[in-house]
Design brief:
3-stranded antiparallel beta sheet, 9-stranded antiparallel beta sheet, 3 domains
């Protein structure tokens, strides 16, 4: 028989590991001296130890190895661990891609002034109105008219908390004039439609989100950054971009304090 130090050298592992395996019940010593407490092992234990170490190096947890040793379905346990490791690998590859993108931005002098992140946008009940405005300066009156018409038809209608409203552009390309758009406002429950205003349910979506601070006529830089980020990180757009208005002329007197969030519904790949 071998004392624990000798057996650890024979098995090419550590005393600490053998003690831990003893504590959690993976590999008990062949014998323990009742007086000294010394652990002793035999060469017959090298084979089960080798199996445990192989499973550990394959990424199985102690709990999973305990299940294997108790006779649970080994194929199922290994398959489940493979799925989890593939998910972990995908997450690591995603982080590496984002880091590569950030490093390139720094080299290009971006200084990380703009950043994109993935957010889960919850499902909402909204009322929406489609229309056309002559120029971007007509957007605010369009929003005000939409809200007035909806509330006139639905007295007491409550907005979501916190408030959530956004504009989407229907043309599919940038236009200086004759702009087709859709304004949406989240509410607590479905109300009564009007001729121009319709209620609907928006599903939960994952969205690439980028902030823009300042006047709306300068938001093009945020769009360019966001779509470059999508391409660099392997995402594709699944729905209309949402311009979500957080701060604006209604609560900030200084245009430099206006804050808009671009929310771009996406899928990976």
């Amino acid at each position: 028989m071998y004392r624990i130090g000798e057996f650890s050298r024979l098995a090419r592992t550590t005393v600490k590991t053998l003690r831990y395996y003893d504590e959690v019940g993976l590999l008990k010593p062949g014998e323990v001296d009742n007086w000294s407490g010394y652990r002793y092992y035999t060469t017959n234990q090298l084979y089960p130890l080798q199996r445990i170490m192989a499973l550990r190096q394959a990424g199985l947890s102690v709990e999973e190895i305990q299940r294997v040793l108790r006779g649970h379905n080994v194929s199922n346990i290994l398959a489940m661990r493979r799925v989890e490791l593939e998910r972990d690998r995908a997450e690591v590859e995603e982080r590496l891609t984002r880091l590569t993108c950030m490093i390139r931005q720094m080299k290009e002098g971006n200084c990380m002034q703009q950043q994109a992140i993935i957010k889960r946008i919850p499902a909402y009940t909204v009322y929406s109105r489609d229309g056309m405005v002559k120029t971007y300066s007509d957007i605010i009156p369009f929003i005000e008219c939409t809200n007035s018409e909806c509330l006139a038809a639905n007295p007491g209608l409550e907005l979501s908390e916190p408030p959530y409203c956004f504009m989407s552009y229907l043309d599919g390309e940038y236009r200086e004039t004759e702009i087709n758009l859709r304004f949406s406002q989240a509410v607590k429950k479905v109300g009564k439609d009007t001729l121009d205003i319709h209620f609907s349910q928006l599903p939960e979506v994952d969205a690439v989100c980028v902030y823009h601070r300042g006047a709306y006529d300068q938001i093009g830089d945020a769009y360019a950054f966001a779509f470059n980020w999508l391409e660099d990180n392997g995402y594709h757009v699944t729905d209309l971009v949402r311009e979500c208005y957080i701060d604006g002329m209604w609560n900030k007197s200084n245009v430099e304090d206006w804050l808009t969030e671009l929310q771009i519904p996406v899928q990976k790949g």
